[in-house]
Specification:
With about 260 residues, the chain is α/β, with parallel strands linked by helices.
């Protein structure tokens, strides 16, 4: 069970085992599900490099009710790790700056979904990386991975790194790969044995264009149940004042009544 969320937003921090594993797709799926359930939510990608295609997708899913700079306040042109991209531009980047941006954009909602950049060890500067952001945000961490050969090593390394930072509210989501290999059917089952305290979920990939609509009719029943389960793991972040923002407990009650 996750800790009591109080009156603050339920926070999901979506990271992954690397780049291109499906983080943005999952965030869009969560947005489509929460929108269909009438929840107040915000999708953020506070840091991006090399382009804003992913933040633009998040903006489109939210009906352009927020600006691209609200969704992605820290952007660097070079397609590289944020630390490298920032250095090239003569800029600096710190976790405190990212947290301030998240706090500004996350007020007044029931659910806040924050997408990270790359994997858990991607550096923001010489001393801080994605793990430090996850630790300071202190919501529930969602690790996205491709369900293919090698995923067990990738997931185990990511979870071990997170636990080394004291992060224990962890959920793993395995996405269907474009092409299934022989390891596909067994990966989730064996990860559940190796990580008995971590929820291991599986999801099918969807057409991203379908996720911009007001409903999530493009999702099958199993996917909807998985997303419902995932939102149920959202937890309160001490970054927010419980009395100043939307309420997770009341939001969960509303979702359950539908």
């Amino acid at each position: 069970m996750m800790k009591d969320a109080g009156n603050g937003p339920g926070v999901l921090f979506v990271t992954g085992t690397g780049t291109g594993v499906g983080k943005t797709v999952l965030v869009l799926m969560l947005g489509a599900y929460l929108k269909s359930m009438g929840a107040r939510y915000r999708l953020l990608k506070p840091v991006s490099t090399g382009g804003r295609s992913d933040p633009n997708r998040l903006m489109r899913q939210q009906g352009r009710q927020v600006s691209i700079d609200d969704i992605n306040p820290l952007f660097f042109s070079l397609p590289a790790a944020p630390w490298v991209a920032a250095c090239v531009e003569g800029r600096t980047l710190a976790v405190t700056e990212i947290l301030d941006a998240v706090k500004r954009s996350g007020a007044g909602v029931d659910y806040l979904v924050v997408e990270g950049v790359g994997g858990v060890m991607v550096p923001f500067n010489k001393n801080e990386c994605v793990l430090d952001l996850a630790q300071r945000l202190d919501g529930t961490c969602v690790v996205v991975a491709q369900n293919k050969l090698g995923v067990m090593n990738e997931v185990l390394l990511s979870v071990r790194a997170m636990r080394s930072k004291g992060l224990h509210r962890i959920v793993v989501v395995l996405f269907d790969p474009t092409r299934r290999d022989e390891s596909y059917r067994g990966n989730a089952s064996y990860l559940r044995i190796l990580l008995p305290k971590v929820e291991i979920l599986t999801l099918k990939r969807v057409n991203v264009n379908e996720l911009y609509r007001d409903t999530c009719n493009s999702l099958d029943v199993i996917s909807k149940k998985t997303l419902a389960r995932l939102t149920g793991f959202a937890s309160f972040s001490p970054l927010f004042n419980r009395t100043e923002v939307g309420g997770l407990n009341s939001a969960k009650k509303r979702l359950k009544s539908r």
